[in-house]
Amino acid sequence: MSVPVPMRDVAGEAPGYPTSVELRAEVERLLRTRGVTLEAIADVVCAVQAPYFPDLTPAECLLSVGTVLDKREVQHAVLTGVALDTLAERGLLDEPLLSIVRSDDSLYGLDEVLALAVTNIYGSIGLTNFGYLDKEKVGIIGRLNRSKGGQVHTFLDDLVAAVAAAAAARIAHQRRP
Amino acid sequence: MSVPVPMRDVAGEAPGYPTSVELRAEVERLLRTRGVTLEAIADVVCAVQAPYFPDLTPAECLLSVGTVLDKREVQHAVLTGVALDTLAERGLLDEPLLSIVRSDDSLYGLDEVLALAVTNIYGSIGLTNFGYLDKEKVGIIGRLNRSKGGQVHTFLDDLVAAVAAAAAARIAHQRRP
Amino acid sequence: MSVPVPMRDVAGEAPGYPTSVELRAEVERLLRTRGVTLEAIADVVCAVQAPYFPDLTPAECLLSVGTVLDKREVQHAVLTGVALDTLAERGLLDEPLLSIVRSDDSLYGLDEVLALAVTNIYGSIGLTNFGYLDKEKVGIIGRLNRSKGGQVHTFLDDLVAAVAAAAAARIAHQRRP
Amino acid sequence: MSVPVPMRDVAGEAPGYPTSVELRAEVERLLRTRGVTLEAIADVVCAVQAPYFPDLTPAECLLSVGTVLDKREVQHAVLTGVALDTLAERGLLDEPLLSIVRSDDSLYGLDEVLALAVTNIYGSIGLTNFGYLDKEKVGIIGRLNRSKGGQVHTFLDDLVAAVAAAAAARIAHQRRP
Question: ipTM for the complex?
Fold first, then answer.
């Protein structure tokens, strides 16, 4: 980036820039078009945290997923990752990047890099859950990974695992006074 | 870490674990004993952000520093980094770590690692300001770096730069609706 | 990503995947088409490290930049970041991402995230130099930042700062036995 | 850290600073006194990578672990993490840090932060394996986690998982030409 520029007046209006609320709506819509509902992510959160918090409800997990998706850093990561997946599907990336993203090349790593940016929002305790979810492919993460027919989810499966891991970390922090 | 363990009852009491509020008070006390006030950190934040937000007040900068220090991840990083500085001063680390920390060895890197954990709490836009502050040694950061007489601030100067960078990033996020 | 899949036979052939040497050539070509030579990056490295190593030569800086660009993680970051810049130039990203990348929105953050992945390759000591270079816009970084006429360098200026910071960190490590 | 200082003459001698080779020997010795052999870490690497590389030998895994431990950033992380474990065992940390480290508090997070610094050395593809190993507690990682009698392995189990994950990532990179 450049150094932050004063791109709005003192009153805080930023004409031309979407608000965080608008971005959140767009992110939710985009995830749905890629086959991911917030409820499906919340299911993963519940599966991971239930052993530690027996009274955890689906509503609390869903609330936590929503709060993670309210963060601008998370919104930007999802918008960017899904854009790369979609561009790869449409053949709009140049080679060799096109083949690398299309094949979900195991050495690519940028998908984990974006995921890390998401997970870090609630601190590093999300790292362990992210890695576990990404490897074990719990719930919707596994369904994304198995989807065929030209669909590319190289970034999306990692992003969903990262949002779930961040939401789980947030619950762990919230439960401690 | 281990996998999170259910170390408290359902009502949320965690006997034996300090609350985030208690940790915040301890962090503030510890910083003061090491020569760092929240006001001095707020001055750095104001210096960095004033060009972009002409109406920014010292009170808003101080509030932002306080909010950063309310985060448990930040509290843990400060407690740990200052502990290592203090142990090095007292000669309680073993060699070769003792000499490495005492001399602020330029290849050490763990001080930046802890700082990164702090900066990440408000997203990656804090990275640039952290690096700039750490190199230019603005305000209190420079005073820590120049302090002599057996004092070790290997971790503290980076942590202060990171808290200031995170507080600046938080202001940038807050100012956008 | 998915869990690493056995996508090649035991002898190590990976038909369809570019070798690291091929990727390096492609990265160098791509940088040149975006106005960045390895020599220009090496100039930044020399500017940063000369005060600490008076005998440092341009050839050593250039060698270090080349070694950084031999790393697959770095190659992937450059390919991906430049792809996003170029897609934004051509209007091939969807809104709101298109406007965010085109305007180099100061809250975007993903450009720093990619840069961090590059810098980390030689350890965290590169962080400070990255932030400094990104803010002070030394040499080619400033020229990229000032370029106009529809060109988008949102990712590229950060990536160049990160490659220079990593190359500088590598020299610091190499000079110590 | 401070800005890198010219702490050695042009010929590269750094009197008073241990060489990377000396640090490696010290790290290996320290790990052994904490119950961790390089062979035990190599076993974890083989367990993780064998499904993808059927011809992988214990010798190749051990070589990869050794190469990871040759990196100064890794050496510093191990020295620092084990120092904190040991200081907690001896009661030499102040409260509340002492109780936090002793109990391996699930919200602490600094152990993952140090682990991340290790894993990043071979790029972000190690993240997934790190999280998986840390959660599933494969081999020596599980033995460290179960050890009792006043021993503190809050940092060590994460560091071992991170070294194994980095060594596995290195093998994945090496196997591709």
Answer: 0.89
Instruction: Please write the tens of the pLDDT for every residue from D87-99.
Output: 999 999 999 999 9
Closest-approach residue (CA) in chain A for C136: A3
Neighbours of B70 (CB within 10 A): 14
Q: Going from the N-terminus, what domains does chain B have, and what CATH number goes with each? A: 20-175 (1.10.3760.10)
Q: Which of the residues B44, B120, B127, B171 would you substitute to probe the C interface, choosing the one with the greatest number of C C-beta atoms within 10 Å? A: B127
**Nearest by Cα to B161 from B135, D158, B177, D53:** B135
Residues of B in contact with A80 (CB under 8 A): none
Beta-carbon contacts of B17 under 8 Å, excluding residues fewer than 6 positions away, are: A176, B7, B8, D99, D100, D105
Whether residue D51 is predicted with pLDDT greater than 80 in this model: the reply is yes
Neighbors of chain D with 3 or more C-beta pairs under 8 Å: A, B, C
Q: Say if residue B105 is exposed, middle or buried (CB neighbours under 10 Å; 0-12, 13-18, 19+).
A: buried
Which residues of chain C are modeled with pLDDT < 70?
Answer: 1-16, 177
Distance from CA of C47 to the nearest CA of B (A): 14
Give the pLDDT confidence of A108-150 residue by residue, as tens digits.
999 999 999 999 888 888 899 999 999 899 999 999 988 777 8
Instruction: Report d(CA B65, CA B47) in Å as an integer.
Output: 13
